[in-house]
């Protein structure tokens, strides 16, 4: 093995849980050898990488390390750096050093199309003001590519111009054109309050996040308001973060499903090294697309993982930083 042993195509071609488990263990050994920070962390836990035979035994790197260290597998100059939104006053932002922006985009597009089909079938509308107003947002890069690939003349970003967005939606509804409105939560609530309507042909997808603009609300309360104001029955959600290349999607009720190269596990509340494939606890994430950072991350979210692999987010650990992508408790 060397520091360029695995390619993104190896990851995105995974189709079965068995393939996922085999590749996860191989990539773990590789990152344990070529990621200095992760290697030191494993050593501090007094764990021998060669002893790991199951994915539940893999050590998961605390996500906070992305705030204080360079998390890199191999040596490279980053093509770009993704940064977290940092909505807290003195909060230090996470940094994800990206070796290949093309790998990130390929991962996002394949994950989206596995969940929703060909992006060319949709007009893509984005209401992401807080993300557009700063640099380093991975969500903006993903959405910009979705907008480009949709090829629809009305696809695009909307900042604070809610009237233009409403006019666009009305035109799409008249044409019976399927569309997706991807929005940060507070902006969707503001839009729905200003322009209540009856949406028939669109998917409303929230990315989470009040960004300090509104009081925090539980996810179901947010969805109930949006359903009432927009005449919908289900609100979709995207689960992603600066530290991940991949996204999970919910088509309603806050139940998320991962692409084949991503898996969420549950760790014990009191023993962070005790990881289970299902159950309630802290959220551990395997994102095999994170080839050049770290694929095995212990997040600060609390959740419920089902035996099917689907999961829901139920909150965050006490004292966890407020996150732009995940402010709501379900």
Descriptive notes:
- The structure is a single chain.
- Helix content is 32%, strand content 21%.
- Strands 5-4-6-7-8-9-10 form a seven-stranded mixed β-sheet, sandwiched between helices. Strands 1, 11, 12, 13, 14 and 15 form a six-stranded mixed β-sheet that branches.
- The protein is α/β, with parallel strands linked by helices and 330 residues long.
- The chain contains ten helices and 15 strands.
Question: How would you summarize this macromolecular structure in one to three sentences?
Answer:
The protein is of the alpha/beta class and 330 residues long.
How do the helices and strands line up, and which of them pair or pack?
Elements: H1 8-12, H2 17-34, H3 36-44, E1 61-62, H4 65-68, E2 80-83, E3 95-98, H5 101-116, E4 123-127, H6 129-132, H7 138-150, E5 156-158, H8 162-174, E6 179-183, H9 185-194, E7 202-206, H10 219-230, E8 236-239, E9 248-250, E10 256-257, E11 262-267, E12 275-276, E13 279-287, E14 296-305, E15 311-316
Parallel strand pairs: 1-14, 4-5, 4-6, 6-7, 7-8
Antiparallel strand pairs: 2-3, 8-9, 9-10, 11-12, 11-13, 13-14, 14-15
Helix pairs in contact: 2-3, 5-7, 9-10
Give keywords.
single chain; 330 residues; alpha/beta; 7-stranded mixed β-sheet; 15 strands; 32% helix; globular
Largest sheet: 7 strands, mixed
Q: What ranges have pLDDT less than 50 throughout 5 or more consecutive residues? A: 322-330
The global form is globular
Average pLDDT:
92
Protein structure class: alpha/beta
